[in-house]
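LAB NOTEBOOK - FOLDING QUEUE
OPERATOR: T.R.
BATCH SIZE: 2
PURPOSE: Compare the predicted structure-token outputs for two unrelated chains run back to back under identical settings.
PRIORITY: normal
REVIEWER: second-year student, initials M.K.

ITEM 1
FIELD SEQUENCE / FIELD STRUCTURE:
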Amino acid sequence: MANTAKNKIKTIAELSAITAKARREGQVVVHCHGVFDLMHPGHIKHLEAAAAEGDLLVVTLTPDRFVNKGPGRPVFNQHLRAESIAALEAVSYVAVNEWPTAVETLEAIKPSVYVKGSDYAAPEKDITGGIAKEREAVEKAGGRLHFTDEVTFSSTQLLNRFFSAFPDATKTFLEGFRKRHSAESVISSIQKLSGMRVLVLGDAIIDEYHYCKGLAKPPKDNIICAKFMSEERFAGGALACANHLAGFCRNVTLATCLGTADSKEDFISERLRPNITPVFFKRNDTCTPVKRRFVDPVFMTKLFEVAYLDDFELPERTAKTVAEYLERHLKDFDLVLVSDFGHGFLNRKLIRLAAENSRFMAVNAQTNSANAGYNLVTKYPSADYICIDEPEARLAAHDRYGDMRDIVTHLGKQLGSKKISITRGHLGALTWDGKTFTETPTFNGSIVDRVGAGDSYLSTTAPLAAAGAGMDVIGFVGNATAAIKLGIVCNRAPVEPVQLFKFITTLLK
């Protein structure tokens, strides 16, 4: 039977058997791996050069779920990509990978030659660190790594130019941003944050999602009726901020308060990253806050929420213990990130201590259903960096319809802050450095869940602000982070540095 494009496509297990047979027959097996999102002349030349290194060329593709190039990628699904590669005469077989990287595949296929493009020849430029692990896997099986030196094109550049899902305003913004900043410079500024010592100070929250399927209306009552399906619990609030931060900064301390009635301490400790040092204060008059949301899992629609919390101020003894800790340790940190959900942890004395003794203080004072109108950023004089959303800014300025630039200028002067980010949902972000405003559009693809997007924006931009980054870079990185976070259910996982770096590279090619 002719080796048509369709029957060239195999599973990894089938490919392993084929290459094992080829090796026994003395054939030289060559292997290429990649995303191959848009087939172009550079891919063809690369694969033809790879085929010349042996007798049998097999190509494996990164599956859709592991393509970390940001929202909207890959443009072409794994089946179309596999068919496109299989149609090339130089290619003997194609398979869609089963893992995030090629390491496990290399161990299964055991090629004599593993071929990569010349852009991977300098391992120090590989932000994932994957090429070193792939080299190790190839050489362990007795093979060698080979780099082609053919004419190169960029799928990402071509897709950004001809297949971009972004509106014209976003394309125009990115064109201008590329002239001022390269992907390498932005990524480098983030990587330099690794040595920063950070204290996250704020409310611990347990987010619960109870997934339900809606049923018919009960015949006797006008109520929502739903069938329970499953549940998930997440570390939210300041816990989520600490987890995001800990991917970018090696030294993160989390100071928060748990209720002794139902502390959830074991659950929380298990879900904090290993490089987070938790400092748990205890109050014996309540439980640790829990927000239980009932969710339709098909479209992640929230049906209703039940909150378990008492948001009275800390008991005097607990507040004194927290104050003593802050007096001793605030100067130990380069950045104090305040994540204030208004659930009773941070009273005015503690806020004043943080404001007066922090080297650099970044603040988000969140307005939510439990504290609307009572937890405003105006509680924080002398904050070095303020990061709030537009409704919170309007509440703080008592200005419902005014121009946002006037509101930001007013808040900056009132609070003595010269670095402000205002997140504006589908309108993107507005940043201000005391003189200049920058508007950054959204980079969102499909939105899975909005919960926690603002926390992710805060967590990556606060250390950049403390390090002196420009507000245009802060808005860009914050919106890129939020775009990734919008594809994650609640706080199921933090935004990882490699995810962010790949997306930045995609946006700026």
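ITEM 2
FIELD SEQUENCE / FIELD STRUCTURE:
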Amino acid sequence: MTTPQHPLAAHFGDLPDPRLDRTKRHSLLDILAIALAAVICGGDGFAEMEDFGNARLEWFSKFLELPNGIPSHDTFGRVLSMLDPTEFTRCFLAWTSALQEKTEGQIVSLDGKQLRRSFDKASGVPAVIMVSAWCQDNSLVLGQVKVDDKSNEITAIPELLRLLDLAGCTVTIDAAGTQREIAHQIVEQEANYVLAVKLNQPELHADVTAFLDNSIANRWVDYHGEPIEHSHFETRDADHGRIETRRYWCTADLSLVHGKALWSALRSIAVVEAERIVDGKASVHRRYYISSLPPDAKLIAHAIRQHWGIENSLHWVLDMSFREDESRTRRDNAPANMATLRHVAINMLRAEKSIKRSINRKRLLAAWEPWYLERVLIN
């Protein structure tokens, strides 16, 4: 948009246009602005972008150049498939850094999500996987990168970390990111980590689980009868016939963790035991973690609980509200760029706080009321 105060002009104005000059009938920012507005208001594809633009032509004319009217669905599809997702992410990060209110100890959670229907069987192109960074404190997507088709999340996580200002934050990652190089990078970026431990690190998993399980069974007394210094924290939730108790234990005793020196700044190991009682039937499950944080069970419990927010507050919303798993966008860079547009839309809807409603209801209100869509876009 040409209006200086509009966030697209402020942070997306230098986005490289992949089109040849002779093919440019529409401004790149016009195309992105209409596409974003359509996604905010419930449009999930290129045809909906064209329809929404035509339906709101008079309203868009107040903000956009529109030298040749509303772009066609083919134009939306062609531009979003050509646009460099790395450059689009760069602009996205510049925008989110302006939105983010960073605080000491903020939790930044990284996790991958597969765009399931982006798999192209005819050409053999695998489904796109996006690794996102989520801040539960601000309810913001801080950034995302696409996993290379011939690689996995282990290579994408360091790339995403490099894009983020992590100083003073605590980074949480599931077991896929529990790698020595990643732990080292987090520490190098002046942040702490809480990393899940599973069988992809067999020696670490064996040492951590054996020590913590034995310590709990022996009431935190070692084989010599000496107490093992540790901390404990417990939460209990009850709802609709379900009772869930979470018990957290944490210790700085790393004496039986072989190779501990290979993990940068490793200070503590932790376990969370989740006991569920549903309709009188009980189940118990334990998860294990390593951390550069001090052995404070309440502190580490907070980081673990915050990490679950990326599933509940981001991935679930993308699937249920934005129907991301149903998207059949497959062409070139379009799946990754559409994922970024959805992330921008989520951030804009969450940043608009004058009306307290769910994401679904905000999307409907923006679709029904142009004044509210304008508020979301220029907030």
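REVIEWER COMMENT (ITEM 2): The first strand starts at residue 107 and ends at 115.
FOLLOW-UP: none requested
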